[in-house]
C-alpha cells in the first residue's frame, strides 16, 4: 500500500505532496535525477509481471489473490525472483526526460529546489 504525505522541504521550505510506494496493481518509481514520478501498472508489464507472480508462493496481495492463483496455476512461462523482477521493471520504465533513470530507490524531490531532504508534515492519503 502506498502513501501520500504533505512534506516540507528542509532546504527551501516549500510544502508539497510526496508519494511513496505503489499499490495493489501498480508500482511507483521516481527519477534518480529530478524525482519525477512514474506509475507502472501490472498489466503494462505483461510477461514481466506474469513471470514474477508465477514464482510466488503466495498471492502478491489480498486484492489480487484470485488472479494471482490463476496465473500461478496456468502461466506456462518460467518464474523470476524479486531481484530480477525489480531490475526488469526499472529497465521497462526507461529514462526520464531529464536524462535520469527511474528506480525504486530514488526519492521524491522538492519541485522548487530539487532537494531530497524533506520532513513529513501530514499523512494525507493511503492508497492501494
Describe the 3D structure.
With 128 residues, the chain is an alpha+beta fold. It is 27% helix and 29% strand. The protein has one domain (2-127). The protein contains four helices and six strands, in the order ββββααααββ. The chain has a three-stranded antiparallel beta sheet, with no helix packed on it. The chain has a three-stranded antiparallel beta sheet with strand order 4-3-5. Helix 2 (47-54) runs antiparallel to helix 4 (82-93). The protein is elongated.
Percentage beta strand:
25-35%
Largest sheet: 3 strands, antiparallel
Average pLDDT, rounded to a whole number, is 93
How large is the radius of gyration?
17 Å
Order of strands side by side in the largest beta sheet?
A: 2-1-6
The portion of residues assigned to helices is 25-40%
Give a count of the beta strands, DSSP E runs of length 2 or more.
Answer: 6
Helix vs. strand class = alpha+beta
Low-confidence stretches: none
In DSSP terms (H or I, runs of 4 or more residues), the helix count works out at: 4
Report how far the terminal alpha carbons are from each other.
5 Å
The general outline is elongated
Q: Give the H and E element order.
A: EEEEHHHHEE
How many structural units, i.e. domains?
Answer: 1
Amino acid at each position: 500500500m502506498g502513501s501520500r504525505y504533505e512534506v516540507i522541504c528542509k532546504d527551501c521550505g516549500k510544502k508539497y505532496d510526496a508519494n511513496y510506494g505503489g499499490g495493489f496493481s501498480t508500482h511507483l518509481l521516481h527519477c534518480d535525477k529530478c524525482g519525477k514520478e512514474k506509475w507502472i501498472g501490472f498489466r503494462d508489464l505483461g510477461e514481466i509481471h506474469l513471470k514474477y507472480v508465477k514464482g510466488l508462493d503466495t498471492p502478491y496481495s489480498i486484492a489480487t489473490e484470485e488472479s494471482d492463483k490463476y496465473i500461478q496455476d496456468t502461466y506456462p512461462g518460467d518464474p523470476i525472483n524479486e531481484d530480477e523482477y525489480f531490475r526488469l521493471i526499472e529497465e521497462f520504465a526507461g529514462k526520464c526526460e531529464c536524462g535520469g533513470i527511474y528506480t525504486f530507490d530514488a526519492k521524491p524531490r522538492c519541485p522548487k529546489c530539487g532537494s531530497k531532504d524533506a520532513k513529513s508534515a501530514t499523512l494525507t492519503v493511503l492508497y492501494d
